[in-house]
Every structure is written in structure tokens, then in C-alpha cells.
Fold this protein.
Amino acid sequence: MNIVGKIIGIKYKAFLSVELKGYNIEDFNINEIPSACFLKDDNQIMGISKWVSPKRTRSYPYERIYNTLSNLKKITVIPIIKDEGAKGDRDFIQWDTVSLMSLLDVFVIFAYYADATEKNGKITYQKFDNGYVLSKINEIKQYHSSALHWNLNELKTNLHNLIDRVKVNYSEIEKSTGVKLHNFKGIDNFKIRIGEDVSLFLDYSRNKSEKAQQREFVTFQPKEKLATLSKAKITIENYLGGKYFFTVDEILLKKDCVWLIESKHSVNSILPSKGDIKDGLLKMILYCNLSEIMINDIKLTATAVLCLTSTKLKGKTSSTDNKASIEKFLETNKFTESQIDFIERLFAEAEHNKFTVEIKAAK
């Protein structure tokens, strides 16, 4: 099944953002700020977030991005490579991460670690080069094109130099901590994959993403009865013709409409974590801003759905239900006041941005 969507622009209002702490630029240190904050300088206010790894599954970086969305200019700092030592993981920046940030108009500072300490045979407490991050923030302050243009330009002009810095700094970290790191041949291969033109990196990552998306072909007739399919692939094109590859947890098909469903599940809690939910909301931002969607060259309408399930729940409710039905569900499942407040704001966000939230017992 080939699902293709187009996005012309992003319009979205977040209702669940947390209040961020503010910093003046003269007091700024990327290693000392929380995972998300805002930065004040020369009458500008910028939302700043940082990743602890280039691999998004290591933490909840999307939640941090979500919490900065209300800012006019959004910046996120991502290490291009993170090595925890030969006994730990080593992760590399991926094109699909850059894709999502570009679609959300988030400026990426591709950064590197300059210091670390040893713990249990691995390196930890890794610290970014703060001077470098500050220099890039100052560049972004004066940058008047889109985040997409910035991100692509940084990849094309700066990534090779940064990879060289990574090797130099990790050599020093290996000496200072006494921790054996992964063989640098992997970093050299990463650089070779990119080649002299970053388009090779884009092609490599896109091919990797496409292969990860592959599944059995499902024939779709627009008039068929309601059918549930899982793990469908979707390619999103922007107004410049760029293509970004994502995976939808579930799709629901009926007549000329497709439901794009992002699912989050909890076993031990009555709701998935806030981090998980906000992770899902980033996909809602994309799906509810699709200006056009086609499946196997058939033009359809789309509905975005965030589905929250738990083994602790009884029954189900939806942001489209009436007030009495929602209240009965909340009472039956004995939600706390803070949980009710969170759900009410989540439902308000869904209604305002025209997507649906379902909360239900896991099957």
C-alpha cells in the first residue's frame, strides 16, 4: 500500500505545553539548562531543547520539541554521534530525524560532545561544546530563511567537519577516562556514506527508511467495508518537493476516508506517560496538516487519531463524545483531578486542531 500525503504549511496550537524556564543568553550553558527552556536575547525569545542521543528511542526528545512549539523560533540541539564506550551503545544522526524537525520548522544544531566522565566501564555525563552551540544560536538569530533551509545547509556544509571534531574529541575522552570506545572505523564509514555530497546521506537514509517501511502489499478498494491494517508506510511531501518517510501504527479505511492512527499503550498505568502522549502528538501535528492524501493513486480525505490504551482501563471514550459520556468514563475509571485536567486539555487540543483522541481498554 502506497500512502502519499502533502503538507503546505503547519498550523497547530498546543494545549499541553509546560511552563518553560527562561535564560538570558549571557547566562546560557547548554549543559546546565533543562531539556527544554526558552532563551531571551535582543528582544528575541527562542525555544531551546536538547537531545541526549541522536536516537530518539533513548529518551523522549519529541516531548521536548512539543514543549517549545509555542515559540516563534524553535531550536533543538542534537549530537550527531554518541558513543557510550565499547561496552555500551553508539548511535548516529538519521535523516528521518532531520526530516521531522524540518517539517515542524525546528532549527537543528548538529552538535558534538567535548567532555565526559567514566562510570561502570562506560562514559557518561557527556557534555556538549557550549561555545560551539552558542555560536550556532547566534547564527540562527540572524537567519531569515526557514528551518528547512538551515538544516539542509548545515548538513551540506558542516557535517563533515563535525564528524572530524567528533573523532578528535572522543580520542581525548578515551584517553582522559581510560574507557575503550568503539572502533573509529564505524565513524569513518559513516563519513564515507555521506560522501562529498550530503545527498548521498539523504539517499542512504531514505533507502533505509523505505526498506524499514516495507510490508505486504494490501489491495484497497475505496468502497470496501471497514478494515483495520497495521504498520502502514506514509510518504509526506512538502511544498518544495522534499519527501519524508514515516510509519503509521494503524490505518482504518472506509469509502473515501482514511484514519491515520498513532497508538500509545500502558501496562502498569491508567494512561500512557505524558512523554509518550506528546510523542504521539507530534505525529498528529503532521497528519492533521495534510493538505492532500492518496492511497494507491486514489485521492482520499484523512482523519488523524491518537489512540491511548491501557490494561487498567474499563470501556472507552473519545474527544468526539458528548460531555456526559466522557464524564461517565472518567468516573468509572476513577481518574484523579490532575489526570482529568490533562485529558480535558488533550481533548481541547484535539478539537481545536481537528484530530481525534480515543482512550480505551486494551484488547
In short: The radius of gyration is 22 Å.
